[in-house]
Write a structure and sequence with these properties.
With about 80 residues, this protein is mostly helical. It has one domain. Helix content is about 75%, strand content about 0%. It has three helices and no strands. Helix 1 packs parallel to helix 3. It is elongated, with a radius of gyration of 16 Å. The model has no long low-confidence stretch (mean pLDDT about 90). This is LYR motif containing 5a.
């Protein structure tokens, strides 16, 4: 499960505003910091945090696409 989440987050991080390299380093650091975690409750919390980050990134990209489309189709003066 961790590997799938890591790969999916890497995929989402390709278009991160500060760059893919920045996102990859932060992601790797976050996963390495918690690699030895064995407490099931803590693992559930970390997975929930990962799911939250995924949703936040998706919302960020959706909003960016929406703003770009709005800028193209609507008069910026109004």
């Amino acid at each position: 499960m961790r590997t799938c989440m890591f790969i999916f987050l890497l995929y989402l991080g390709r278009e991160y505003p500060k760059g893919a390299a920045y996102f990859r380093e932060r992601l790797k650091h976050a996963f390495m910091k918690n690699k030895d975690e064995t407490d099931p409750e803590k693992i559930k919390q970390l997975v929930a945090r990962g799911d939250h980050v995924i949703k936040e990134l998706e919302a960020l990209y959706f909003l960016r696409k929406y703003r770009a489309m709005k800028k193209r189709y609507y008069d910026p003066e109004k």
